[in-house]
Write a structure and sequence with these properties.
Blueprint: H1 2-19, E1 21-27, H2 36-49, E2 53-59, H3 66-74, E3 79-82, H4 85-93, E4 101-110, E5 112-116, E6 127-132, H5 138-150, E7 153-158, H6 162-170, E8 177-180, H7 182-189, E9 196-201, E10 226-232, H8 237-254, H9 256-263, E11 265-266, H10 275-292, H11 294-299
Parallel strand pairs: 1-2, 1-3, 6-7
Antiparallel strand pairs: 3-10, 4-10, 4-11, 5-8, 5-9
Helix pairs in contact: 2-8, 4-10, 6-7
């Protein structure tokens, strides 16, 4: 009887596992991204609170976001992605057809800070070398916004990661402006005391670092560093709505306090902002920034 019970239990477990559908959350960057701990936390909660879908992270960097979106296009019912830097930039430049995708759930704003070894509002900052991971990235737009505010000559240099830019700056090897998590900046300050925090790119002040002013408070207007979970427009509407609710519930379960600690992330879920409004605001702001900095962005291509 015990043997029969074990067999029946195994059959039930296999049937349950087979009934669950796998949804791949496709990221246009590598697993070493500073946001990865946030992705993991959200998916753990999403998988814990329901049994219809199994969500997994899938990293598909390359092609300025095209590799990731092409992968999603192959199985639109079972794959989703996000408007991280490369994909968002692809939408507004036309490199990726944004009309083929629809917002599922507003995820978070990435609240990073900028740091420099120069006082940007002084004559010593006449020429600034800024680092970023790619053209049109968050760090690139921060550099452009600071250039516009303080009127210095901007020279961009690109590394595989923002951290590499900080390593260069800490060693005084040329980079004088970089952007990353506040924690990263504080760590590098111990290596080079000339490194000073300039400001925070966030809609609100960071509760862990309340003395750092936002760029908005400093009079620097930048497109938000927003990330929306998106699906191919061919994904069934009912399925997309289910995933929307699952992600919203998962974000609430993770909690805003933990998101701050995991990656300096601020979710619109806690401000009751709809995914459509969140996504459209991001795209419109990014289009405006593209137009404003068209000349500078063209230099980087």
């Amino acid at each position: 009887m015990r043997f029969l019970t074990s067999i029946l239990l195994s059959i039930v477990m296999i049937t349950t596992a087979q009934a669950q559908e796998t949804i791949e959350w496709v990221h246009a960057h590598g697993a070493a991204s500073a946001a990865t701990p946030g992705y993991i936390a959200v998916l753990e909660e999403a998988n814990r609170m329901q049994k219809k879908y199994v969500f997994v992270n899938q990293f598909k960097p390359g092609g300025d976001g095209v590799v990731a979106t092409n992968y999603v296009d192959e199985r639109p019912q079972h794959r989703i992605t996000s408007t991280t830097g490369a994909i968002a930039d692809g939408f507004v430049t036309g490199r990726i057809d944004g009309s083929q995708y629809k917002p599922v759930q507003g995820l978070w704003d990435v609240c990073w800070a900028a740091a420099s070894t120069l006082a940007l509002d002084t004559p010593q900052a006449k020429s600034v070398m800024a680092s970023a991971s790619s053209q049109g990235s968050l760090a690139h737009y921060i550099a452009l916004g600071l250039m516009d505010r303080y009127r210095f000559e901007l020279n961009m240099v690109y590394f595989r990661s923002n951290t590499e830019g900080f390593v260069n700056m800490a060693a005084n090897n040329g980079v004088t402006l970089a952007a990353d998590r506040v924690k990263t900046i504080d760590d590098f300050k111990t290596k080079n005391p000339q490194i000073q925090t300039v400001g925070l790119h966030c809609p609100v002040r960071h509760p862990r670092y309340p003395n750092i002013k936002t760029f908005g408070e400093l009079g620097i207007q930048l497109p938000p560093a927003s990330v929306t979970v998106i699906a191919h427009r061919d994904m069934d509407a009912a399925r997309a709505f289910e995933i929307r609710q699952i992600f919203a519930d998962a974000l609430r379960a993770v909690g805003q306090d933990r998101l701050w600690d995991l990656g300096d992330l601020r979710s619109p879920v806690f401000a009751n902002v709809t995914p459509e409004s969140y996504h459209n605001t991001h795209m419109n702001s990014l289009k405006a920034a593209q137009a404003k900095y068209a000349k500078e962005l063209a230099k980087s291509k």
